[in-house]
Amino acid sequence: MNTFKSLVGGVALSVAIATSALAAGVEINASSTGLAMQGYDPVAYFTVGEATKGDYKITTLHNDALYRFASEENKVAFEANPEAYLPAYGGYCAFGTAMGFKFDGDPTYWKIVDNKLYLNLSKDIQERWEGDIPGFNQRADVNWEDIADKDPAELQQ
């Protein structure tokens, strides 16, 4: 019976998180379950310098998205100053945002520029973005003001 209650409680929590993430809008690239950054630890990019999967047991909810962390220390650092670790453009592809679209940012294609984490869709896209990071980021910053609250599919029309 306890296993059943745990299972039901876990499912209820997942549904609540997903519902919260969907209700929050589309500023943050989170899966239908509300999981941000495909479960990668946003702090690890800055501390260990590589994409690191977070532990499903070490999480925090921020802006209705669930973040996972590789360690309790990373969770504490994030909770103290989330803006220092959150990826630009809600975790959507930096190059795509510069083009006026919202494509999934792949946490394995990343770069820190001026202490800000940027994600891109793929290796080819990241290489193109790296050809003019300041120019693309300037365009992305302007576009983000118009597209942050729009559904990605809406921008494809």
From TrEMBL:
Keywords: Signal
Source taxon at top rank: Bacteria
Secretion signal span: 1-23
Protein name: YHS domain-containing protein
